[in-house]
């Protein structure tokens, strides 16, 4: 079995992804998708700045599909992504699996077309076919979840992401997952403060997970920051990137305070 035993909600998402991949493969062979991917311009680098204690923290605006969007409204994913870019984010992270629709790839294409910053796809990935689809849609990076992928499949998907010239971001929430992620040499490790399978806080504090990662490895936080207090805690962890709630970065007052906390120019 390619994935571990999951709680119902995540299990439903993974099952839906399997059904989606099967249907897409029957409709469009992966060779055809690879041809489309080859026509895309080279992915933009994610977290390409110099590491160091005094470096500015990369700011990634997070969009969660229909949770943040309303059809016909200015907050449709593409329009919201543009607002986030105008607010000064360095990248956009898009998650559409929260409402179990098949429009996620279309949303990804729309967001990529609207902005000139890298776009990270956070949707659940369980098959190389999805990696190639994301590249064909214009994604610059993929989030790969240690919690739902067996080690060999995770290794394979990291390799596939890198072969498609995208940035591999491996999410880890336990010491064992962090250690295995390090062995894969991904460009970024995303530390999660909660167990993705239960939603409960980790037994191992995120500060402890941080201490086992060498200074040469780029690190981001997997959960988005909703408050300035959370931003203060993130800055204290000396990470390279953070996900930020849309409202926090698009409000001029909170955005100015956030930039100061994250050592960024306003």
Walk me through what this model shows.
It is globular, with a radius of gyration of 17 Å. β6 (188-191), α8 and β7 form a beta-alpha-beta unit. It is built from eleven helices and eight strands. It has an eight-stranded parallel beta sheet. It has helices spanning 8-27, 30-38, 77-86, 104-114, 128-137, 151-163, 175-184, 206-211, 228-236, 246-250, 252-261; strands spanning 58-63, 91-94, 119-121, 141-145, 167-172, 188-191, 218-221, 241-244. It has two domains: 1-38 and 124-221, TIM Barrel; 56-118 and 224-266, no CATH class. By secondary structure, the protein is α/β, with parallel strands linked by helices.
Keywords:
TIM Barrel, 266 residues, 8 strands, 11 helices, alpha/beta, globular, 2 domains
CATH-assigned fold name of the largest domain = TIM Barrel
**What is the chain-wise order of helices and strands?**
HHEHEHEHEHEHEHEHEHH
Average pLDDT reading: 87
Helix and strand composition category: alpha/beta
Report the total helices. Answer: 11
Q: Which strand order do you get reading across the main beta sheet? A: 7-6-5-4-3-2-1-8
How far apart are the first and last residues' alpha carbons, in Å?
48 Å
CATH class of the largest domain: Alpha Beta
The figure for the number of domains is 2
- Sheet-strand content, in percent, reads 5-15%
Q: Are there runs of 5+ residues with pLDDT below 50, and where? A: none
The name of the CATH superfamily of the largest domain reads Aldolase class I
- Report Rg: 17 Å
Q: From the 3D coordinates, which CATH architecture of the largest domain would you assign?
A: Alpha-Beta Barrel
Major sheet summary line: 8 strands, parallel
Molecular shape: globular
**How many distinct beta strands?**
8
Q: Percent range for helical residues?
A: 40-55%
């Amino acid at each position: 079995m390619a994935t571990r035993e999951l709680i119902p909600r995540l299990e439903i998402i993974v099952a839906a992804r399997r059904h989606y991949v099967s249907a897409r493969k029957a409709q469009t062979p992966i060779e055809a998708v690879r041809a489309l991917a080859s026509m895309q311009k080279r992915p933009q680098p994610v977290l390409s700045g110099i590491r160091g204690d005094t470096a500015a923290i990369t700011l990634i605006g997070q969009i969660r599909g229909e949770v943040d969007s309303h059809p016909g409204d200015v907050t449709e994913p593409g329009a919201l992504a543009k607002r986030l870019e105008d607010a000064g984010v360095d990248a956009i992270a898009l998650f559409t699996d929260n409402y179990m629709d098949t429009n996620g790839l279309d949303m990804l294409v729309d967001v990529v077309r609207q902005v000139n910053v890298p776009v990270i796809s956070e949707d659940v990935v369980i098959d190389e076919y999805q990696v190639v689809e994301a590249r064909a849609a214009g994604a610059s990076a993929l989030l790969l979840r240690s919690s739902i992928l067996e080690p060999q499949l995770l290794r394979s998907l990291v390799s596939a992401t890198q072969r498609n010239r995208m940035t591999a971001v491996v999410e880890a929430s336990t010491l064992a997952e962090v250690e295995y992620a390090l062995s894969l040499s991904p460009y970024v490790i995303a530390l999660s403060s909660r167990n993705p399978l239960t939603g409960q806080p980790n037994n191992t504090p995120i500060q402890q997970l941080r201490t086992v990662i060498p200074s040469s490895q780029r690190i981001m936080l997997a959960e988005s920051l909703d408050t300035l207090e959370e931003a203060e805690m993130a800055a204290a962890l000396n990470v390279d990137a953070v996900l930020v709630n849309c409202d926090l970065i698009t409000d001029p007052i909170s955005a100015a305070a956030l930039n100061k906390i994250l050592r960024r120019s306003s």
